[in-house]
Structure formats: structure tokens, C-alpha cells
Design a protein that fits this description.
The chain is an alpha+beta fold. The chain has 3 helices and 7 strands, in the order H-H-E-E-E-E-E-E-E-H. Strands 1, 2, 5, 6 and 7 form a 5-stranded antiparallel beta sheet that branches. A two-stranded antiparallel sheet has the order 3-4. About 5% of the residues are buried. Zinc ion binds next to loops.
């Protein structure tokens, strides 16, 4: 079968390139260039820092067709039991970053990120129920240690 007879059967027409034919069929493109509008067209969750301008989401190769929604700020919690590190401005306390993220329409996740050094990072990914139970257990242990529980 020649290319022209294939095109006649599929409706691609003379000279139509494959990407144009796929677009005509309603297929999504497979190539996305940096700076282009994100292919995710569904609205952001209300807490997303880009909810006012969802086209600015970067295209992540791990999930290129789904936007990564994050709030404007992550939270950093200082860890007093660990050594700090010297930095250009002074000393940086050890910390754990607490962040919220959601890929497309999947369930939101809480991530706890501890940067040990340039080569090593520990990440815990929690569902919302996991995070609530962890917060409850931490609060319970703190209150127990401080004698605030009856
Ligand atoms: Zn978003």
C-alpha cells in the first residue's frame, strides 16, 4: 500500500503531515515546548498558587499532561536535634519542608522533605488522612511529654 492510498482511506489528504492529521482527529499533541500553555485545561484547586493563571504551570516530564498544583508557599520547620550548616549568610538550621501538592485531578498529598546534604534527601509522601493522623500522634506525644494530658 502506498502513502497516498493510505491517506485516501484515512482522510489525511495530500500533503497533510501526521501532526496535523492527528490534530484533525482530535488527538492531543505529544510534543510540548517550554513556555507553551500547559495542556491541563481543568481548573486548579482553590489553594493552588497559580489558580489565577493556570497556563503558567510548568510541564513536568513525569506527568506532562497533568499540572502540578502547589500553594504559593511551602513551610519550613526547624529541627533542633540536628546540626545546622554554615552558609554564606551565617548558619542554616536543619529543617524539614512541609509541602502540599496535587498532580492533575489526583488526590492531594503532603510531602515532608528533609535535605540531609547535597547528595541525600529524605522524602515522606502522605495522603491527607495520613497527615492528619501524624499531626494527631505528634500532638498527643507533645502533650503527654508536657503533662497536659489528664
Ligand atoms: Zn494549579
Amino acid at each position: 500500500m502506498t502513502e497516498s492510498s493510505t491517506n485516501e482511506q484515512t482522510g489525511a489528504g495530500e500533503g497533510a503531515g501526521q501532526p496535523e492529521f492527528e490534530k484533525k482527529l482530535g488527538l492531543r499533541p505529544i510534543e510540548y515546548r517550554s513556555g507553551e500553555q500547559h495542556p491541563e485545561q481543568r481548573p486548579c484547586p482553590s489553594w493552588c498558587g497559580l489558580a489565577h493563571d493556570p497556563a503558567r504551570h510548568g510541564i513536568d516530564p513525569r506527568h506532562p499532561l497533568s499540572a502540578l498544583h502547589t500553594p504559593t508557599w511551602d513551610l519550613e520547620v526547624a529541627l533542633s536535634a540536628y546540626r545546622g550548616t554554615l552558609c554564606a549568610e551565617g548558619v542554616l538550621a536543619a529543617s524539614v519542608e512541609v509541602s502540599l501538592e496535587q498532580v492533575g485531578q489526583r488526590a492531594p498529598r503532603i510531602r515532608l522533605i528533609r535535605y540531609l546534604n547535597k547528595e541525600s534527601t529524605v522524602i515522606l509522601t502522605l495522603g491527607l488522612t495520613d497527615a492528619e493522623e501524624l499531626a494527631l500522634a505528634l500532638t498527643y506525644q507533645v502533650q503527654l511529654a508536657e503533662g497536659r494530658l489528664l
